[in-house]
Structures are given as structure tokens and as C-alpha cells.
Amino acid sequence: MSILVVGSVALDSVTTPFGEVKDVLGGSAIYASYAASFYSPVNLVGVVGKDFPEQYLALLKERKISLDGLQIEEGKTFRWSGYYEYDMNQAQSLCTELNVFSTFHPHIPEQYRSSQFVFLANIDPELQIEVLKQVKKPLLSILDTMNYWIHSKRQSLLKVISMVDLVLLNDNEARQLCNTPNLVKAAKTVLSYGPKIVIIKKGEHGSSMFTNSTVFSAPAYPLEMIYDPTGAGDAFAGGLIGHLAVSGDLSDNNIRRAVIAGSVMASFDVEDFSLNRLIRLTQEELYARYRAYRMLIHFDDQE
Prior knowledge:
Helix content is about 40%, strand content about 25%. The chain is of the alpha/beta class. It has one domain (about 5-85, about 95-295): UDP-N-acetylmuramoyl-L-alanine:D-glutamate ligase (3-Layer(aba) Sandwich). The strands form two sheets. The protein has a nine-stranded mixed sheet with strand order 5-4-1-8-9-10-11-12-13, sandwiched between helices.
């Protein structure tokens, strides 16, 4: 089933203890779309400037990511620069240039409006509401956000949270949104706002999924080297929604499997800068790590 992804498309400049890149492909919609494309067709909605490199457009088309919803406007593409120290869980921003993204309003092409799976990546919650008003009732809608929107547009964020099925937050965002240090209490609070599922991402410490009746926790896949965690959360979301879209199964057990699929995708993303590792990724590698992940969390009851 088709997936609609709406979010930022950016040119990133990133420094970590293991290297540096400049003006590479980034943005929440890019990481999520590319990850999801391993499972199902993707319709991308975003905006770029006239300076957006043609090779990046070609790269997305090669993955059969539809770009009919990508607006190309006069001006420069959204740019972000930042760095990570040895604590790779926290990015330090150096410069954010919104450029054409500052006036972005998502227009959903008619052929995208019946997409059965919708991912609202990290953008202004008022724009996320605009998207939901343009699409037909999807089987599953997923929302991501960030601390900036929690602080600056809380009421709009709470409104859009009430309109979706699944909410993604990292641990700091969950604590900030719900004003509690306890993630279990935070998840229950978010569930009370209306969504059926809350997934709290904890970086190198994995993730936890909460519903009104179940809790599922998954560790992060153990890696010896992490080069660049930029986009890992969006790659997680892409793997998650991709797995659900290709199966069409929204049972609790399958959503748990989707959490693992998202964790696997994120584990590949961090092994290189930008999309470089995902570009080299094969289906065989993806499935092999999924199987290894399954063994990682498997255990038998004592007889």
C-alpha cells in the first residue's frame, strides 16, 4: 500500500568525531521516505529551492519515490548545520537557514490523497493539520515532532496529536510535553490525548511502544561504530511505516515487528553520513539484520 510522507527536505552540513560532510542530502521527509521505500511505494511532499542538486532528485527517483508533491520554488533550499560530540544522542545546532521552507504550505496532489499510510514528519503542527485536512481517511496516520513545537505551538500540537493514530517522540520530548521525568507516565498522558499508540525513542537505548493495554520495549541493535546519527529517528519511522504498509496488518504483534523493522533501519542509517549507508543497503542485508535482531531479543521460558 502507498505511503505519504510530508516533511522537510534539506541540505545538511554535519561534523562528528568521525568525519565531516557539507551540503549533503537530509531532512526528515528524505530519511523517512528512503527508508520506507525498501518496503512500499512512497509519495513525498516537501519543498526545495532552485539550488537543489539534480543528482539528489535522480537518487530519489531511482528508489521509485514519487516527487509529484515536491515543490521547487525560487530561492534556496532549507539548510542545517550541526555537530555531535562523543555523546551521539544529542545534536548541537550551529546554523539553521529555513529559506524556502519558511513559507512552505503542503499541497497534497490528488493522486496522493488516498494514501493508506501517512507519516507527518517533524514540521509545524499547523502544517500537519493542513495535511490531515487534505487526505482521505488513511488506515494509519503517524506523527513526529520536536521540542521547538512543544514549546512554541503546544495547543496546535495537542490538536494534531488528537487527530492521529500513532505518535513518535524521543525521551526528552515526551518528558517536556507531559511535564514528567517518568516515561511510562508520559506515554499514558499522550495516549489520553487520543492516539492509539505512542512510541518513545531512546536513541542508543532503544525504544518503547505503549498502547492502552500493552507495553513493548526493544533495545537498540548493538553497533561497534556509529558515524552519524542524523536522521536515525526518521529512518526508524520509515522502516516502521514501511513494514506496516507492505503487510497491511495493524495487529499488536505486527506493530511490534514493525518497531523492530524501524530499529533495524535506524541501525543502518547511523553507520555512515547522510543516506550513504542506506544507498548501499541491500534487501539481503536488511533481512539478515532483522533476523539477527529477532535472535537478540528472543528467549525461552525455563522448563
